[in-house]
Amino acid sequence: MKTINLISPTNDDSIKLAEVSKIIFKSKKSTVLTGAGISCNAGIPDFRSSDGLYNMVKAKHPKSVVRGQDLFDISLFRDEVSLSVFCTFMEALYVSTKEAKPTETHKFIKTLKEKNKLLRCYTQNIDGLERSCDLNMGIQEGHLVVKNENGVQVQQSSITSAGQFTKSWKELDVVQLHGNLHQLSCTHCLTSYAWTQEYQSLLSQGLNPECKSCHEKYLERLYSGKRMTGNIGLLRPSIVLYGENHPQAEYLARGLNHDLKSRPDLLLIMGTSLKVDGVKKLVRSLSTSIHSKGGKIIFVNKTPLSSSSWNGIIDYQVLSDCDEFVKSVKREIPDLFLTQEQLDSKKLLTPAKKAVNKSNTSDSAFTPPTTPTKVKVKSEIKSEQTIGMDLIYQIKKEAETYKRMNLSIPTPELTPASSFDEETFKPALRQVSKSQLNRKIKVKKESKEDVKDEKLLKRVSPTPTNEEIPMKKCKV
């Protein structure tokens, strides 16, 4: 059995935690066993810790209760004082569970269901917080208890068909092994009742309400003159006490066999010290089935187990608060906690990121690194070179035109330079100063073609102005 201490973790603990997270992520049929430890962060105390329910009861009623565990024993119905303390304590616990909110561990169980990984959750808790997470829990009464002709209650599970049983069992997400605090049941006829203000008020005073069903039967037999049989039952929370058989024991046994045949591949034990005999048997049965498939058993609790009695049964022991363990798993495998929409959007983004990374890798491997700025400069140089070549061609053409026109123009009479007619040559000449040409042409000396263009520009002289045209003497 490997131990992982998340209270003061080491590097080795981090490696083992990654292994556990991977096992949970790969599991397809997970079973979960929970105890009171998963509800402590919701404000509901556990049983056996220093500030748990047992010590709390003993501190409040030191004369009436010898041990806190005695308050949850079936023998308390023999003593009126113990029964009164039990009623008062159960009413206070019921009020606290109504105000409590689901913890991270409860939400984690819901996540396993949403990911189609949850086969079944078995809980020892009676607070019913799983119902707040929209988990199907409890067993419908129509599938459990019916009455025969004589009004005697019988187990429905013993007479229903296999198909009906399988359908009803598969509807369950959470199986309450120790009953449900949010229901009341009769100690005589087992009829279930919901909590009302009247019942809650009586229980807070340490009084057990009478069963209305039993009372009606009593009056019916009394008025008809029949012999009185039986007693009028009392209402109590529908929880299983020590020394008491579970009212749906046969149904639960069939359900457990159904889950074992489903071949689960993981058992998560969270928030329980595994002190109850029935729970120990459940863990050993599930362990045999899971290990036969190559699955793992993971135990999560603040207090460690006895390694001698659980070696070979439990594979990983995680010493941690249950909610902190869930948060650690969430950091290791965040995809498990994402909704389907979030996963779909992530899948769409992943190929795009890979394509960008691949293109960047290929470019850096075969070409020198470039930047958008450099590309822009090259394009500007190319455009400037094109403009320069156009100007050179235009200058050449104008120079040839000037030569031809210079030969064909008749020689004017000799006149002073001040009276020279500028309009004569204006249509044929285009004034382009050297400074204007230098500003427009910006040729980079990076290639041989650029050098040739620059030499060509030097050979081409600018168009002469009127003052620079030489005066020729004319023969008279």
UniProtKB/TrEMBL annotation:
<keyword id="KW-0862">Zinc</keyword>
<comment type="similarity">
    <text>Belongs to the sirtuin family. Class I subfamily.</text>
</comment>
<keyword id="KW-0520">NAD</keyword>
<feature type="binding site">
    <location>
        <position position="214"/>
    </location>
    <ligand>
        <name>Zn(2+)</name>
    </ligand>
</feature>
<dbReference type="InterPro" id="IPR003000">
    <property type="entry name" value="Sirtuin"/>
</dbReference>
<dbReference type="InterPro" id="IPR029035">
    <property type="entry name" value="DHS-like_NAD/FAD-binding_dom"/>
</dbReference>
<dbReference type="InterPro" id="IPR026590">
    <property type="entry name" value="Ssirtuin_cat_dom"/>
</dbReference>
<protein>
    <submittedName>
        <fullName>NAD-dependent histone deacetylase Hst3p</fullName>
    </submittedName>
</protein>
<dbReference type="InterPro" id="IPR050134">
    <property type="entry name" value="NAD-dep_sirtuin_deacylases"/>
</dbReference>
<feature type="binding site">
    <location>
        <position position="211"/>
    </location>
    <ligand>
        <name>Zn(2+)</name>
    </ligand>
</feature>
<dbReference type="GO" id="GO:0005634">
    <property type="term" value="C:nucleus"/>
</dbReference>
<feature type="binding site">
    <location>
        <position position="186"/>
    </location>
    <ligand>
        <name>Zn(2+)</name>
    </ligand>
</feature>
<feature type="binding site">
    <location>
        <position position="189"/>
    </location>
    <ligand>
        <name>Zn(2+)</name>
    </ligand>
</feature>
<keyword id="KW-0808">Transferase</keyword>
<dbReference type="GO" id="GO:0017136">
    <property type="term" value="F:histone deacetylase activity, NAD-dependent"/>
</dbReference>
<dbReference type="GO" id="GO:0070403">
    <property type="term" value="F:NAD+ binding"/>
</dbReference>
<feature type="domain" description="Deacetylase sirtuin-type">
    <location>
        <begin position="10"/>
        <end position="346"/>
    </location>
</feature>
<keyword id="KW-0479">Metal-binding</keyword>
<feature type="active site" description="Proton acceptor">
    <location>
        <position position="178"/>
    </location>
</feature>
<dbReference type="Pfam" id="PF02146">
    <property type="entry name" value="SIR2"/>
</dbReference>
<dbReference type="GO" id="GO:0046872">
    <property type="term" value="F:metal ion binding"/>
</dbReference>
<dbReference type="InterPro" id="IPR026591">
    <property type="entry name" value="Sirtuin_cat_small_dom_sf"/>
</dbReference>
